[in-house]
Specification:
The structure is a single chain. The chain has two domains: 83 residues, Ubiquitin-like (UB roll), CATH 3.10.20; 90 residues, Translation Initiation Factor IF3, CATH 3.30.110.10. It has seven helices and eight strands, in the order H-H-E-E-H-E-E-H-E-H-E-H-E-E-H. The strands form two sheets. It has a four-stranded mixed beta sheet. It is rod-shaped. One of its GO terms (molecular function) is translation initiation factor activity. This is Translation initiation factor 3 N-terminal domain-containing protein.
């Protein structure tokens, strides 16, 4: 890794109309915070009976996102718990809630998890170091490792350097060796960045064939 580094160095949740503060905000009946509200997980918003307010303001999606004040108990009683749930969206300046469809919420979570999984896979990067005069057996072993990582979807940096105490080969020979290695991994990977060759050291930047280009990812979103 030190060799490679030396080489490189050289080379509001809701869109709704503004709401005017109301005098009933600070009344005991409206704002009864439970201890669970303070310590509630930041990864999940309070739902149904876990919402620490007696009165809430429902987002009316059929009426341009207008807020409708109502009793939380009455609202929960009106929904089918098997189909949907009431979820707290914000508390300032008003306790605002939405009715969430369980099936749609599950689908969104599934999509989010898959996108996170793909992002993690995209950000995995491996580095393998080669010497210009590497023995064929060692070369094949490194190539097998590179291919295995590319098949997993990772990016692989192939770094070339002269063996300790030896001079690098002529530039033409270095270019030929890098071209040969690039061809050997072409069935599972493609170069996504321009090759680097400087001061006797070189690098190939390979990504899995299944990975999109950054501009393709932006267009697909």
């Amino acid at each position: 890794m030190a060799t490679f580094l030396a080489f490189r160095s050289a080379a509001k949740q809701i869109c709704s109309p503004k709401i005017r503060p109301h005098t009933f905000l600070n009344t005991p009946h409206t704002r009864r915070l439970h201890a669970s509200a303070v310590h509630h997980s930041k990864y999940q918003k309070p739902r149904n009976d876990n919402i620490p307010f007696s009165d809430v303001h429902l987002v009316d999606l059929e009426n341009s996102g207008q807020l409708v004040k109502m009793s939380l108990t009455d609202l929960i009683a009106k929904i089918d718990p098997k189909e949907s749930f009431v979820e707290l969206q914000s508390t300032v300046p008003l306790p605002v809630v939405k009715i969430i469809n369980r099936r749609e919420a599950a689908e969104r979570r599934k999509i989010s998890k898959e996108k996170h999984k793909q992002n993690v896979k995209k950000n995995v990067k491996k580095e393998l170091q080669f010497t210009w005069g590497m023995a064929m057996g060692d070369l094949e072993h490194k190539l097998d490792r590179a291919k295995a990582e590319l098949k997993k979807g990772a990016r692989v940096d192939l770094v070339f350097a002269p063996k300790s105490g030896q001079k690098p080969p002529p530039i033409a020979e270095m270019k030929e060796r890098m071209e040969l290695i690039a061809e050997r991994v072409a069935d599972v990977g493609v170069e996504w960045k321009e090759r680097e060759l400087r001061r006797g050291m070189g690098a190939l930047f390979i990504k899995s064939l299944g990975m999109k280009n950054e501009d393709e990812e932006e267009n697909s979103e």
